[in-house]
Amino acid sequence: MQSAAMVYKSNSLVEAAYRLTVQEQRIVLACIGQVRRNETVTDEVLYSITAADLAGLSGMAVGDSYKELKDAALRLKRREVRLTKEPNGEGKKPKVMITGWVQTIFYIEGEGRVELRFTKDILPYLTGLQREFTRYALSDVAKMTSAYGIRLYEVLVQWPEGHRVVEVTDLRRWLQLEDRYPLMADLRRWVIEPAIEQINEHSPLMVSWSQRKTGRRVTHLVFDYAPKKPVKAVSKAPTKRKAGKISDAEIAKQARPGESWEAARARLTQISLALA
Fold first, then answer.
1. Tens digit of pLDDT for each residue in 48-105?
2. Which of 65, 73, 174, 271 is an S-S bond match for 51, by CB 3.0 to 4.6 Å?
3. What are phi and psi of 226, to 5 degrees?
4. Spacing of C-alpha 48 from chain mean position
5. What whole-number distance in Å separates Cα of residue 208 and Cα of residue 260?
């Protein structure tokens, strides 16, 4: 698995309604990173990810990732996604399309490996995208442990301008929260703040956010974000040594074969005084 793999998603898929766990998202995104965008891709193509791949991406122990991979793959087969727009944003569909992510999953026990086929309906949202798509490096989200963090990161990089206003009702629909966290305080505590913390820790972005009210109710979330500034290396100035003061470590290092400790100290002290 290439850590430099790129994820391409239609903006319509970024804003689709679905709920996946962190491990399910890692499997899906790692396989999306293998899709060849410039070639005709059919739903017969198998994409593969191993427990070792998963461990390398996420930083978890390989032993732990074996069971995680198998369990997540089994759940992934039953997951649904709801889409309302065509892959390149060409108007709204007359009906909401409810489809699955994958049509077939193989788990190879002895190798700790999963192979999967995307569904025919999902593939247009991953390939042949001419406009209105979101692109980012798989490594940007690989170490996140919040499923909401991964989804929110995609929502933000979809708008590279560094500022995005999101309706609370849209965010709830995208994340399929339904009646979970009905209070804004709970939504903030369990969804928004953990997601932003993960983005700030693991992704190339630094994000801040605020709330916007309509009347007395919070209706919009405002996100401001920018690439993190590179950390400058701090160079330490060499420690100055007082003339004539030689440490025991320096004496041990520079003593000549057969030279006594006292003789070595005297000789090195003289040199230090002469150089001062």
1. 999 888 888 888 777 778 888 888 988 999 999 999 888 887 766 678 899 999 999 9
2. 65
3. -155, 160
4. 19
5. 64
In the chain, what are the domains? 1-143 (1.10.10.10), 147-230 (1.10.10.10), 239-276 (no CATH)
- Provide the phi-psi class of 151: left if phi over 0, else alpha when psi is between -120 and 50, else beta: alpha
φ/ψ of residue 214, rounded to 5: -120, 105
pLDDT of residue 127: 87
| Sheet with 205-214: strands ordered across | 163-167, 217-227, 205-214
Helix and strand element counts for the chain (H, E)? 10, 10
Q: What angle do CA 226, 228, 229 make, to 5 degrees?
A: 120
Using the CB atoms, write b or e for 167-192: b if 16+ within 10 Å.
ebeebbbbbebeeebeebeebbeebb
Please choose, from the candidates 61, 40, 39, the residue with its C-alpha nearest in 3D space to the C-alpha of residue 52.
61
* Interatomic CA distance for residues 203 and 223, integer angstroms: 15
81 touches 106 (CB < 8 A): no
Contacting residues for 35 by C-beta, under 8 A, at least 6 apart: 8, 41, 47, 118, 126, 127
42's tokens: 């059919």
Mean of the per-residue pLDDT values of the chain: 86
- What's the residue count for the chain? 276
d(CA 203, CA 153): 8
Integer-rounded Cα Rg, in Å, for the chain is: 27
Rounded distance, CA 255 to CA 56, Å?
Answer: 47
The helix/strand/coil state of 22 is helix
Structure tokens at 198: 């993960």
